[in-house]
Structures are given as structure tokens and as C-alpha cells.
Design a protein that fits this description.
Strand content of chain C: under 5%
Oligomer: heterotrimer
Number of domains of chain B: 1
Largest sheet of chain B: none
Structural class of chain B: mainly alpha
Strand order of the largest sheet of chain C: 1-2
Helix content of chain C: over 70%
CATH topology of chain B: Helix Hairpins
Chains: A mainly alpha, B mainly alpha, C mainly alpha
Largest sheet of chain C: 2 strands, antiparallel
Order of helices and strands of chain B: HHH
Structural class of chain C: mainly alpha
Chain lengths: 189, 100, 712
Amino acid sequence: MSVDWIVFLSLAVVSVASAIGMLLSKSAIYSAINLIINLITMAAFYLLLGAPFLSMAQVTVYAGAIMVLFLFVIMMLGSEQSSGQNLVPWQTPLSILLSVILIGALSYLLLDRSEFLTSASKIAQDFGSPEAIGLLLFNAYLLPFEVIGILLLAAMIGAIVLTRRPKRLDEALSSGADQNLAEDTHATD
Amino acid sequence: MLPIEAYLVLSAVLFTLGALGVLVRQNPIIIFMSIELMLNSANLAFVAFARLHGQIDGQIFVFFVMAVAAAEVAVGLALIVTIFQARHSINLDRLNSLKG
Amino acid sequence: MLFEEISSSAPQFFSLAPLIVFFPIIGLLINTFFGGKILQSGPAGEKIVGWIASAAAGLAFVVSVLLAISLINYHDGMKVPLVEWIHIDALKLNWAFQVDTLSVTMMLVVSGVGTLIHIYAIGYMHEDVRHHGDPSRFRRFFVFMNLFIAAMMILVSSDNYLMLFVGWEGVGLCSFLLIGFWYDKGEGGIANAMAAKKAFVTNRIGDFGFLLAAFIMFTSFRSLDFDIVFGRVVEVNAIYPGAIFAITAFMLLGVAGKSAQIPLYVWLPDAMAGPTPVSALIHAATMVTAGVYLVARSSALYVAAPEAQALVALTGAATALFAATIAIAQFDIKKVLAYSTISQLGFMVAAVGMGAFAAGIFHLVTHAFFKALLFLSAGSVIQGLERGHHHLEHDPKLKKLVKQEHHFDPQDMRNMGGLRTKMKTTYIVYMVGTLALAGLFPFAGFWSKDEILAEAAHLNPTAYGLLTAAAFMTAFYMGRQIWMVFFGKPRSPAAEHAQESPPVMTIPLIILAILSALGGFMNLPFKGFHQFSHWLEQTSENFHAGEFVLSVALLSTALALLAIAVSWWLYMRRAAKLEALPAAKRPDDPLRQILGPLFTWMNNKWYIDELYWAAILNRYVDLARFLADYVDWRFWHDWVHDRLLVKGYNLLSRLLSVHIDLGGIDAFANGLASTTQRLAASLRRLQTGFVRNYALSIFLGVVIIIGYLVLR
């Protein structure tokens, strides 16, 4: 067994374990932490696969920014414990069964149907370097890049609009209008 | 160099686990996390194929997926916050008023 | 093309022939559409309506005269085609006008006498509608009269049997309409309508015969066209020996119906229910002679069937005598004339039956003159009496006289008498008509009747005997009428105050009287004369001039004079003696005293009507009642309709509605709906509202697709 395999397997075990841990943990906080671990193992895989830039981006954007956002929301809502009973208890075993089937089927497809595709090709030294990615991104994929920029802007505006407080929204909508309505809104708040 | 199938199988396992999380958990935040997991498993496959073919276009796609995931998380979490403000609960099983 | 041919080859008036039908039709259309307004326009309205109708008839007469003038130079006559009428395989009929001497003679009589009667009717109907209390019917009368002229013109101008039949039915219709003119009057309010019905139904029997004749004719001759049929007589007689006898015998049935011969004469006396101008025009002068015309027109057929000729001759002669015996014992002035008409028609039918076609047509023409004259004069007498009666009712001094008489009948001769001085013009023309009818020299009737008798003397001795007896009785009943009506003392207050008719009525009477007096001179039976017979000979060689037999003429004249003398003795001398007797013992007729029960039989028309009722009509009514009560009502209505159809239909509809519709179609539709509903209700549960369920189903789909890829 080569070193590659040892590294891969150990990382894979961590990755799968953290994924399972995310699934099983009752508290959302634990789930988030498990996901962070998982994302970091992903970053390690990216390194192994010759994508150093993506690896860094994974750590900063995912494990950093996105997961912080998650944690922030969890904290804000105080809903780390999911309350209430499961209204569709039969779904869990069925889902597990289907998942097992899916894993089996995919594995069978990947392992049995195809010859082993060992990437023997030597890769260039700057494969996946920020420079190479930047060149490709701002040349061939310039238009998608711009679209993604707009998408992010739209998501940002959407998030702001959605999370604006209802009272202020009402005031904005009916500024100086019926007082009773305003009082009612206050009372319900 | 490891055979690419190893990564692909790992990707499949992670994807399935993510899907399983979507199916069995009631907490929408965790469901979102599971979705992130599924996206990441796909990303892993992208990167693995990029490595296989020696082309970095796959990595560009991962980059895009990350951006989309970020946007999705932003809007999704905003929605969750809004729902919580309206109903003081985010249990998905309680949100079944559209039943037939 | 045909018209061009006519106009190029004959610069005559033949092409005017269709106008003889169109003028009366135009007249009736004007009166139909505008007559009502004209009548309301003022007191002159009636005169305008009447004169429009008279002008229509008069113009037809003018056209007839023009046609006659054309014929003088163009002997063979002319067929004037108007349109192609029926064209079915072998049956080719044109609506064409046959213009020859025979048809033109009939046209002249119909339109000439018709015009005079129209004019007379202007005066007569003026009083008649007021007497009956419905002046608005004045217009209707003239519309019907014009319609009659048109139909009669079609009848006499046709060039084939079917077109003739159209006219034949047309005049029958007009006869029906005009007999029933006062359909709501008469005994019990229905007597006039019944009379009209009787005439119509009796004529139907005759028409049945006519149609059978036409059918046999078409089967054997393959044509209904006069020229073609007459041309094939010899040929057909060889192939179908009995056909011509059958045709002529069935035709005789038609003749008996239309021309009131035994056994179908019974309708004509009842037809006197119509206004008097109608009796004169239709039931004396023209329509009833259609049968005679038909036989004369079909002379080629009759000549080929001697048995049929004998049959026709005997029928005519028997009718002549039989009707004359009835006429003797009638008291109604019009009834006497009606039976006299039947009798005279018998003379004509006997004549054309014997083969004396020219004599028959000659008598037809003269009879049209003097019988129209007699009827119109009788109408004048009747209205004179009505005027007297009216005068009595409105004169306060004379009113008490009226109350004695409950039902004053202005037609009963027993209410008349002494009118000689009251109605001078009418008296004179009536005398002329009587002498003409009685057959006294030199009036028209003498020449025509004598020609028939002379022909009969050598053609058919039996008929001669019957006809001579009939001629004697004719003179007798006419004498009786004259003495009863115009001589003696007035037998009622109304007769005492009778008044003469206006000139519009008397002038046509005078014209007709002149014709009656001089009409015979157009066919003097001496060598070098015979103009009328020669005129008719141009149409068919079967028409031939009769000879003058002095012995026959002397005998008939002597008999006529004797009859008048006997009637004078009975109704002047003897009646005067009977006046002396008390009213209870006094017989209403001097003849009754002599003949006794025989007179009652004659007075009751030999109980022929009663016989018909007992033998045929009651059976028929029973059959009709049986058909109505049992077959129609009980069987068809109660059983077939109510039981079978209604119940069956109800059953069927219940089956359809309950089982097929509700049980089948509705159940299917409802089942479809409820199935959909139930399916939807169960499918609804799939929509749980749990997002995770939806995700699971998506996941299931993924698994299935991947599974498919694996198992492929």
C-alpha cells in the first residue's frame, strides 16, 4: 500500500466520519463543526488532486465564510436543538434503505463498469495555480464570471430584503397611514 | 497517483450521506449543511476529473459552484430567519400547511 | 316557335285565345284584392265591382267573337299552345287552347250569356244581399262568377281530356261555392250548405267515371290528346275491342253527374238554393251542358261504340220524360225550371247519344238562351214578390195583412198570380221564354227541339217516343206556370203589391228574349240554310245537318198547343171554379184532384231522394258511423292509440329514462365523476405538505434511474 493510499484512506475516513457525525448530531452547532471538518478534508483532497488555489478557497470561503454564516444564524435563532417529534417516522428507514441502494449502485457502476482510470498523465507544475485559474477565468469564462458576480449581488440584496424587520417594513410601506394599523402591528410585535 | 475511482466513490458516498441528511433531518439549518455537503461531493468529482484530464476547466466550475453555494446559503439562511420570525419555529415538519 | 308559326301563317286572332281565360281571372283578381275597398268607397261601389266582373266576362266574349271571325276564313281551327304542362314519358300534355267551331260556339254561349247574367246580377244581387242581410258578400259573388267563367272557358277550350278535366272540376268547385253562397241560410241554417254538399258529392261520382274513362283511354290510346285519340279510334278498336265502349260508358257516368242525368240528377233541383243568376248561368245555361259538350267533343269515340250511343240516348230520353213528370207537380217556381232543365238536358244528351251531335249542340245553344231567360225572369218575379212583401211590412196600413202569413215563400207559385199587370216587362220576356221552351213556331226552341225529334224519329224510335211525351209535358208544365204566376187573381197580398225590376235586370232579359225568339233562325232546317250545322261540320265530320220532317214538326206543335190548352183549362177554368170552395176542402192544385196519389208521388219527385237515402245513403251513413265509432274511435283511438301507442310509448320511455338513461348513461357519467373524485381523494394524500417527503420522492427517482443504469 503506497503512501498515497494511506493518506487518502485516512482522510476519507475522517471525511465520511465527519459527514456521518453531521448527520447524527442533535445539536446544529455540532453538525456545523462536523461539516467544517469535512470541508477541510475536502480542501486536503483538492491539494492531492493538484488544485492548490481551490484548496485555499475552500478553506477560506467554505470553512471560513459560509460556515461562520451558518454558525451565526444558529446562534441568532437559538435553534441549535431541533424541537418537536418526527411527524413522518417511516421516512428515516426508507431513506436509509434507499441511500444504501444508491451507494451500492453507484459503487458498482464506478468500480465494475469502468476500467480503472489511473491518471498517469504528468501534470504541469503550475496546474491549478492561481495564475492558471485566473487566466482561464478572465479569458474563456469571463461572461460566466460576471454573471456569478451579479448572482452574488442579487443574493445579497435578497438576503437583506428578506431579513428586514417586519415593523420597519410596515412603516416603510404605510408611512404616515392608518394609526390603528400601526398600533396593531406594535401590539403583535 | 491513486485511481480516480477512489475519489469518485468517496464523492458518491459523501453525496449519498448529504442526501440522507436532507431526507432524515427536520432542522432546516442542518438540511442546508447537508446540501453543502452534496455540493462539495460534486466539487470533489469535478476536481478529480480535472486532474484526470489534466485540464483546469473543472476547477473553474468548482469555483462557480462555490459562488453559487455562497449565494444560496445567504438567501436560504435569510429565508430561515424570516420563517423563524413569523412562526417562532423552524421545524420543517411544522411547515406543512400546503398539504393536500 | 309555335306562336311565330301562328302569326305568320294566319294573320288572325287565334293567338288571343288564352285571353278568354285570363280576362275573367284578371277580373276576379281585381275584385279579390280591391273589391272590398271599392265596396266601402261609396254607394257606387257595388256597381263598380259588378261592372268590373261584367267587363271581364264581356271582354272574354269579345275575344270569342274575334276567334269566331277568324274561323270564318280559317275553317280548320287552330291549337294555340300556351305552355308545356305535363311531360312524363308517354304522357305529353300541353296547356293549349283548341280553337275550332265547336269550342268557339261554347265560348260564345258561355261568355255571351255569362256577360248578360253578370249584368243582370248587378241589380239582382244588390237586392239579394240586402234581403239576406250581408251586403259584404256582393264582391264574393262576382269573384266566384268570374272564376266560373274562367273554369268553363278552360273546359271548353282544352285540347286534351286532362285539361278539360281541370275545367270540369273548376266549374264543379264554382258550382259548389255558389250553391252554398248563402251557406248559413236555408232550412235549419244548413239546408243551403247541404245542397252544396249534395251537388259536390254527386258530381264526385260522375268525376270518378270521367277519371276511369281517362285512365282506360290512356292505357289503350297512350294519349289524352283529342286529335291523337280521335285519330287512333279505328286502330285501337281493332286491338282492344271493348276499350272504347268502356271509355264511353264511364264517360256517360261523368256526363250523368255533370249534366244531371239519371241516376245522378238529384243534385240539380237542390242546387236552386244558390242565387237565381247562379241557377241561370251555371245550372241551366252553361255548366250542366258540359256533359253534352263532352259527348259532342268525343263524337269520334261514340260513333265507334254504337252500344254506348244507345245507352246515352236512352239515358237522355228517359231523363227527359222522368224529369218532366216531376216538373208538372212542383210549386216552387225555380224547382219547376230546374226539373225542366234536367228534362231539356235529357233532350240534348239523347240527341248527342243518337249521333245527332249538331242537333244536340244547337239545342244546347238555344236552351242556354231561353232557360237563362226563364231563370232570370223567375228571379225577377221572386224579387218582385219580395219587394211587395217588403212594401207590406213597412206600410202601416197593410201591416196586419203580413201577420197572417208566417212563412212567406216568394218562390212558391201558390203565392203568385196576376203578375201580368204588375210586372209587364218580366211577363213579356217570360212568355217568350215559355214559348221557346214549349217549342212553338217560330221561337228558338221549336227549331232545335224539332231537329232532335226529327233525328230521333229515324235514329232511335224508343227515344223518339219518350222525347215526344216529354215535349208534351214540357209545354204543359210551362203553361201551368204561366197561368199560375201571371194570370188569375193575386193569391197573396205580396203578389198584389209586386213591383217591376230595375232596367239593369230587365235589359239583359230583353236581350235574351230576342235571342230566344230569333235564335232558331241560325239553323233553319231547309236546304241552303243549316248554317249552324255546317259551321260545326268544320270541326268533325260526325256533325251533320238534320232533315226537316214536316210530320214530326206538326205533331210536336200540335201536342204543345194541346198541352197548353189543357193547362189553360185546368189552371184557369177549373182553378176559378175551385176558388168557390171553402179553403179547407180546396186542393192546392187542380191536377191533384184528377191524378190523386200520383200527383203526390210526382210532387215528391217519385220519392227518388228517399229511395237513395234508404238504399244507399243510410247504409253509407251507417258505414261512416261504424267507421267513426268503432274503427276510428274505439279501435284506432281507444285501442291502437291510447292502449297500444301511448302505453307502449310510455313503457318504452320509462325503460329508456329509468334503465337506459338513469341506469346506463347517468350511472356511467356519475361513476366517472365519483371515480375521479375518489381517485383524487386518495391521490390528495400524496401531497403531505412535508418537504422531506417530496425530497424523498425525488431521491427515489434518482435511485430508480441509477438502478436502471445498473440493471441495463
